[in-house]
């Protein structure tokens, strides 16, 4: 299922564009690029799908968690360590160094998202999603086997229930904390219900479980009735609805946005369609060598693109802190296209280099270590997509 690896690249690129929309906004792209935040939802759904699809009956919790550690942690550590080192040793007059380091430590031990008010004050804000992934990994050995044992009808009801639960959470948050177009620092940097509902791991579990359910259905022989282009058209329709409401209060900022609730089931349908096509032995552009390569680089790209964008935008707006870009938005300008392109190229080059010399080699070494520690002589089964 290399097509799913290729698909990862588009999700990573969408997230990059969402952050370009914050740091180096271009004219007429605000409502479109802002939809890129849904790339995180895609990764959560895909993670649940891939882990369930590759699950084996004789796996152990320790061996599973060891493999996830090998996959996620080494690059995460580097993504936190480098900005922290620069902040501590450089000219950091505008940085609260103790808080910066504290949030960095929370990120390294994968608890950052449990205190959402820290997200924009640390070395790498995007690492909040890894805290959610760690929570998913801990729960996976407990919930996935139970889901896989369900019949297709039960899985359908469970999928519908998960989608409904996602909307119930969002509506409850709206009622408790009504959306507003006047976004303050408290709206994006506090531990308010809106922020918790967006970043705290338990609130994002629905997306991961949706991926688990889809993979469980495919393991039982179900095949998506949708072709890939039809699933993509449904996703495009969802994006169109969100774009049409781009100026509504409930879309004014990420903590109020229902983009996750709209796109999670649509991403699940797209993943199912792509997986079905690959299972039928059909090739596609997504499984081409260039896109698969970009998909393999996507984890490093995701972790480092924000740091690169901050560095590039700081050269354009030297008086702005990271949080200022969110509270006092920059005026869109075509002059930002050049710096944004530089940030993209630097992020790509860096991710390719890190994948080749650090991420992939270290993951192989750690996987070998955990395999031997678990008494496994056989290599881990091939995975349909990197997650």
Automatic annotation (TrEMBL):
Keyword Membrane in annotation: yes
Pfam families, sorted: Acyl_transf_3
Transmembrane segments: 6-24, 31-51, 71-88, 100-120, 126-148, 155-176, 196-216, 228-246, 258-276, 297-317, 337-358
Keywords, comma-separated and alphabetical: Acyltransferase, Membrane, Transferase, Transmembrane, Transmembrane helix
UniProt domain Acyltransferase: residue ranges: 3-356
GO CC aspect terms: membrane
Example GO BP: lipopolysaccharide biosynthetic process
A GO molecular-function descriptor: acyltransferase activity, transferring groups other than amino-acyl groups
Stated name of the protein: Acyltransferase
């Amino acid at each position: 299922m290399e097509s799913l690896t290729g698909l990862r690249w588009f999700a990573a690129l969408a997230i990059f564009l969402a952050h370009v929309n914050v740091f180096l906004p271009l004219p007429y792209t605000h409502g479109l690029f802002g939809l890129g935040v849904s790339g995180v939802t895609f990764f959560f759904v895909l993670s649940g799908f891939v882990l369930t699809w590759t699950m084996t009956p004789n796996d152990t919790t320790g061996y599973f968690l060891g493999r996830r550690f090998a996959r996620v942690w080494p690059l995460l550590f580097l993504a936190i360590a480098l900005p922290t080192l620069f902040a501590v040793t450089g000219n950091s007059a505008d940085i609260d160094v103790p808080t910066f380091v504290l949030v960095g430590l929370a990120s390294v031990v994968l608890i950052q998202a449990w205190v959402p008010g820290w997200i924009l004050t640390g070395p790498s804000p995007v690492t909040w999603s890894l805290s959610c992934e760690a929570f998913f990994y801990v729960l996976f050995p407990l919930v996935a086997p139970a889901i896989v044992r369900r019949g297709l009808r039960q899985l359908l009801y469970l999928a519908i229930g998960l989608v409904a639960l996602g909307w119930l959470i969002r509506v409850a948050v709206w009622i408790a904390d009504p959306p507003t177009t006047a976004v303050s620092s408290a709206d994006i940097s506090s531990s308010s219900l809106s922020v918790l509902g967006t970043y705290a791991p338990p609130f994002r579990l629905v997306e991961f479980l949706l991926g688990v359910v889809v993979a469980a259905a495919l393991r039982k022989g179900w095949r998506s009735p949708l072709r890939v282009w039809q699933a993509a058209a449904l996703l495009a329709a969802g994006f169109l609805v969100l774009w049409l409401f781009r100026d509504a209060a409930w879309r004014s900022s990420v903590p109020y946005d229902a983009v996750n609730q709209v796109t999670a089931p649509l991403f699940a349908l797209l993943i199912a369609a792509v997986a079905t096509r690959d299972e039928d032995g059909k090739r596609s552009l997504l499984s081409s060598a260039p896109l698969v390569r970009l998909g393999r680089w996507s984890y490093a790209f995701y972790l480092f693109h924000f740091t690169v964008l901050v560095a590039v935008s700081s050269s354009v707006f030297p008086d702005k802190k990271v949080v200022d870009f969110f509270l006092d938005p920059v005026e869109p300008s075509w002059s930002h296209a050049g710096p944004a392109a530089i940030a993209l190229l630097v992020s790509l080059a860096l991710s390719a280099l890190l994948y080749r010399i650090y991420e992939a080699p270290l993951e192989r070494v750690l996987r070998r270590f955990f395999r031997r520690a678990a008494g496994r002589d056989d290599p881990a089964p091939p995975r349909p997509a990197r997650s």
